[in-house]
Write a structure and sequence with these properties.
The complex is a heterodimer. By secondary structure, chain A is mainly α. Chain A has helices at 2-5, 13-37, 45-52, 58-93, 105-119, 125-147, 156-179, 182-192, 201-228, 232-237, 242-264, 270-282, 286-311, 319-336. In chain A, α6 packs across α11 (242-264). By secondary structure, chain B is mainly alpha-helical. The chains are: A mainly alpha, B mainly alpha.
Amino acid sequence: MGTIVAPAVRVGRGTTRAAWIGAAVVGLLVAVALSVVVGANPMAPGTVLDTVLGGGTAESRFVVWDQRIPRTAAGLVVGAALGVAGALMQAFTRNPLADPGILGVNAGAAFVVAVGITFFGVTSPLGHVWLACAGALVLTVAAYAIGSAGGQAAGPVRLTVTGVAIGAVFAGLTTGLTLTHPDAFDRMRGWSAGSLLERGFDVVLPVLPLVLVGLALALGAASGLNSIALGSDVARSQGVSVRRIQLVVLAAVTLLAGSATAVAGPLVFVGLVVPHLVRWTLGTDQRHIVLGSMLLGPVLVLLSDVLGRIAVLPSEMPVGVVTAFAGAPVLIALVRRRTVTAL
Amino acid sequence: MSALDVGRRRVVVGIRGLSIVIGLRSALVGAVVALATVFLALLALALGDFPMTLAEVVGVFTGQVDALPRIVVLEWRLPRAIAAVLFGAALAVAGAIFQTVTRNPLASPDIIGLANGSFTGMLVALLMLGGSWPLLTAGSLIGGLVAAVVIYLLAYRGGLHGFRFIVVGIGISAMLASVNTWMLLRVELETALFASAWGAGTLNSVTAATAVPAGICIVVLLALLPLVTPAVRQLDLGDDAASATGVAVGRARLAAIALAVCLVSVVTAVAGPIAFVALAAPQITRRLTRSPGIPFVTTGVVGGALLLGSDLIAQHVVPLTVPVGVVTVVLGGGYLVWLLIHESRRRA
């Protein structure tokens, strides 16, 4: 699809893009390092390094290997999944305001998890994952069905409000369910703020294969999405099977948003902000956007998590609160610009 | 006015200077819905742990029965039923004002998250200042007003564009919602359950002591409605047309929005954020009356019936008693989704 993007590519753009991708990789490494070094339990960076390399005291080994590294892994997985899910949804619905959180996908996943916890006593992380994926699938299909009802892409406001409405209905159902079942309420409230606290490898490892499949599907669908961006008819004339791309994207979003929600709870705005930052720097080629979102999503989640750990010492602010505060201003800045609807 | 008659039958209600023009169809719809409300209210007074027949309920008002039924009906159930009607009317009128002023059916206080602001204020009052009812009320009023001002300022850019207003509102709303969840995390389970039930919107805690002051506020605020109505009607034509007909656009809009925010905040302070009545009632009314704009009075009547009906469902139809907000969010949100699908189908 290179020929399609060609007119927009300026001379020297390739090197700029390589520089940006390099910067994103460096940013990711810095974020990972910070996430391992910074915490409520202060340790010298030297001690941390020593522990990572196999030394350290019993306490430092516990803090680093049992708490910070699993948590960092969770942040990486969740960030990449949400960033790419957001990029796919924005391209798929051709709507700059699409986000798994805003479109209610996370709320749907949360509702199904709540049903599982309340009525079926599901406690294992793997159980949460499948429930969350089922909820995400239903909501993604619903958002898409409503977005394309009438045979045309829905306007940003219509789609956003539809998502908010669906999300509100599911959040209401979740509230009704948890309020009438205090045990479930207690278990849900830690999860529903969106947090990486105490998410160990036992939670991350089961979802890892699902996220990897989702990311692979996303990369595979990216060039097809470039064609769809020009309209279904053009895409078809270029030999792209629109239906197949739609199914692949749907599967990818379901796996990614469902897994991320199962691990961290409903996080808003990561999927909204990351693709926009990527588009501003890397341009509009979906392959670059997917790749860039995969790198930048974890940066945002990990930095938000680090900030949440030290912002309100001695207690901790869940990463979901930090991402909401980081994301809402971007959303507001987006709509205050004049050309908001252009993707 | 006859020179400008556009062919719709209408009735004029009011005294010199302060009159309301109501379309005939609006008036009829209003009357029918009002009758339905009376029936629902009798039902609300009859149903409960101490069941009574409708005849007995009517008997209470005509002074024919003994003490116990009188206490049950007049002191236990009547405040709640009246509160449901008044609160529903207040929310519906506030929604109608927002939707008319921004010229967008989706820019209602539910979507833009005034309720989340009120809830944040209430939680701050509850968790940091201890929480007596006056404090909670003040907290939720301040929270709602501050949220409204912030959204207005952020969305204002050489005019109030409905789309920007909604999306800014959604952003602020999501921020506040995450703060609310976080604050609920930091308290004990019992407090969190109480706050969470309030946060869903409930009439369970409504008593005569809280309902009477709120009811008086609402009646006073609704009485101010005819003062802003003419200007709001002009705003519905667009800012340019409105200022061409001599309306001070900015001031009229601010006055109207302030009135709407006060209505929402008064309700939220007592009953919590009851979702989607403000959004659904004006739209239902517009469809029932086939009116070009949103008739405020009829909307108020419809809103009262909606909330009273939802509260009946929440108390008596759902197996476990749930907050009324859970019922309205499911019914209203479902209606909104249906509306969005239906409209995009029809346009295609």
